[in-house]
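Need tokens for this chain, all 107 residues.
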Amino acid sequence: TTLFRSRALADTAWQGAMRLKLADEAIRLDDLFAGSGQKVSGGTSLFRHFRLDCAQQLYRSLGEQGIFLRAFGDRPTELRCGLPANEGEWMRLEAALRLFAKTGISG
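Here are the structure tokens for all 107 residues:
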């Protein structure tokens, strides 16, 4: 693993490609949440942050489907979602958000 890290740190082409990939995936995540009526309020290319009136309902709904968001105990209207790791996880998140949108609850 140390060898891999050393190579990754030295591989500026890989770093550039990864930055672009992560930025594209952050946009994809924004679009996915927006499609279910949830607007992103910020974040990084690794995670997105939301301020929603329905944050606790979204947290519970996705959690019941095995999709875990980061909730903030002192800020009940805020959530954070990391990027899905693979296409299967993207599909699960899309289905979970579609189900949540059908409930009529929006951010």
